[in-house]
Structure prediction request, 232 residues.
Amino acid sequence: MSDPNAKARRGVLGSLRGSFLTGLVVVLPVGLTIYLIWTFIGWIDGWILPLIPGAYQPEALLKRWFGPDANFPLRGVGVIVFLVFTVIVGWIAKGLMGRSIIRWGERLVDRMPVVRSIYNGIKQIAETVFTQTNSNFERSCVVEFPRTGMWSIGFVARHVKGELAQRLPNGDRMLTIFLPTTPNPTSGYLVYVAESEVIMLDMSLEDAAKLIISAGLVYPNAKDPVQPPRPI
Prediction:
């Protein structure tokens, strides 16, 4: 005969396990988000604070304002200094004098072979990410990759232009598509595919990125992954 006490214990343990997993789902995203933000702020502080003169360090200011016994850490001062400095630099760069200084500096950098390549690459990435231009992905799609019968999610960049459009051996219009890898979407493959062989998705770029990062576990419509996401 089965032991009723054993069943009761298993029921209690199962309930505790379910509560623990539910709590983990709630606590883990919050905890990781706070940890990452706290770590990022500390990284910025560690980069900026050494550039500030000793008399203006947060610890020195605390002791000057609240007495020599004031000794508690201040986190985020470097972030504030960085934000203020960046805003001032951006304001100056918009003016005539700022643009002249930037052009002079870029001409100087162009004379340095290795530095020139690094600077121009970082500048192009920064302009693409932080400025409102047309250099953004247009839509999400799926293409047959890495072989026929296997499909990968990609981001449509633009139609192929220039020399590539003339030399690629295909009569159809070609699309430039970035195929990110899982779970790190910052790396991937750049492919050129005929437009007729690309299946466009109604899925937003953000939802497609979530699907890639989660390795297919997070669908745009979580309640029914078979159905398309509901329009907003």
In short: The helical segments are 4-48, 58-66, 77-94, 96-109, 113-130, 162-167, 205-213.
